[in-house]
Write a structure and sequence with these properties.
about 375 residues, alpha/beta, Rossmann fold, six-stranded parallel beta sheet, four-stranded parallel beta sheet, about 35% helix, transcription, DNA-binding transcription factor activity
Length: about 375
């Protein structure tokens, strides 16, 4: 009489703790507690996970399974809770759409959550989004203005992590950005080809160290140098802004200042399309024609840029491609392990020619 083969004996917490050389309570906390061992050290966490994989431990709890085998977990797309409209914002919605469209496994999906810009997540990991605390999300894509403590808290969990739109020098983090500096370099070259020499630039607050603003201004300065044009501080204007209205009052004051100059710029570049439409609206309100009297160049290719009157010339950022590339980089981190240095990937940008830029109104650049 034949007997059925015995089922393999279930792996126990005691076996895992012995293999990892840690206490059973540490294993239990990491695999079974509500908050999945958020206060367990990085080294202990790594030893437990390594032991689980070597023993081929397969817990019944889906979240615990995902923590041990990250490829089985969800991707979580996170943005700053201060972003107007959240994921419905054009900029971040396109990133998320690109990431979703790139998923090859039909059983995979991407969850969406928010992080708070003010919380210290390193000292308060219990405030992390639920999908991270439970362990169901094991691959992270984040975007928007970063909270440094949030980034550090994610990195401590040693899971695949990609940040979109901002570059940070953090070991284990992959950043994917548009080539911001090339965006403004291309804009200066484009305007120079139209005969402009006095090209102004409106940017964010003075002293702001945000990566994208610094890179955009660097590209503007390098573009002028490449064209052999002087760097004129009077043509660089810093504007304080908030997320609600992009500092309309300051943008208008900046525009008044620029057109009052004895050598008025013949073109104004703006760090964002929304700012460009504010500037263009004011110029038209005081009787200046766009582009016959002055050219306006935006940046970021917002949907409204094509419907503005006149349609706004701008720079297209590869937002969908950034989302798709983020999914690919998560897969690479699962296959090849945690990054041992910061990685910054820049994707190409492109000029979008519309009707807000035209030939310089006089050979002198006025």
């Amino acid at each position: 009489m034949k007997t059925s083969p015995r089922k393999p004996r279930a792996i126990t917490i005691s076996q895992i703790s012995k293999a990892a050389d840690v206490s059973p309570s540490a294993v239990s906390a990491l695999l079974n507690d509500r908050d999945y061992g958020i206060r367990i050290s990085e080294k202990t966490r790594a030893r437990i996970m390594k032991a689980c994989r070597e023993l081929n431990y397969r817990p019944k709890n889906p979240a615990a399974l995902a923590r041990i085998y990250p490829s089985m977990g969800d991707i979580c797309f996170l943005i700053n809770s201060g972003v107007p409209g959240g994921v419905h914002h054009h900029y971040f919605g396109q990133m998320l759409s690109g990431a979703v469209a790139s998923l090859e496994d039909p059983t995979s999906h991407i969850a969406y959550s928010l992080f708070d810009p003010e919380i210290d997540y390193v000292n308060h990991p219990e405030s992390l989004p639920q999908s991270l605390r439970s362990g169901s999300a094991t691959q992270i894509i984040a975007a928007s203005t970063p909270n440094t403590s949030f980034v550090q808290a994610i990195l401590k969990r040693n899971i695949p992590f990609v940040y979109l739109g901002h570059h940070m020098d953090e070991v284990g983090l992959c950043s994917i950005v548009p080539d911001y500096a090339e965006a403004t370099r291309q804009s200066v070259r484009y305007l120079a080809q139209l005969g402009h020499r006095r090209i102004a630039y409106l940017t964010g607050p003075f002293g702001d160290s945000t990566y994208n603003l610094l890179e955009l201004q660097r590209g503007y300065v390098e573009g002028l140098r490449d064209c052999g044009f002087p760097i004129s501080p009077q043509y660089i204007y810093h504007c304080d802004f908030d997320q609600g209205n992009f500092g309309q009052d300051q943008l208008i004051e900046a525009t008044k200042h620029l057109i009052s100059l004895k050598e008025r710029p013949s073109a104004i570049m703006c760090f964002h399309d929304t700012a460009a439409t504010v500037v263009a609206s004011y110029l038209q309100s005081v009787g200046l024609r766009i582009p016959e009297d002055i050219s306006i160049m935006g940046c970021n290719d917002e949907p409204s840029a094509s419907t503005y009157h006149p349609p706004l010339s701008t720079v297209h950022f590869p937002l969908s491609e950034m989302g798709a590339r983020a999914v690919k980089e998560l897969e690479n981190q699962i296959l090849f392990g945690r990054l041992d240095k910061p990685v910054n990937i820049s994707l190409p940008v492109s000029i979008v020619e519309r009707q807000s830029c035209g030939p310089c109104p006089s050979p002198s650049g006025v």
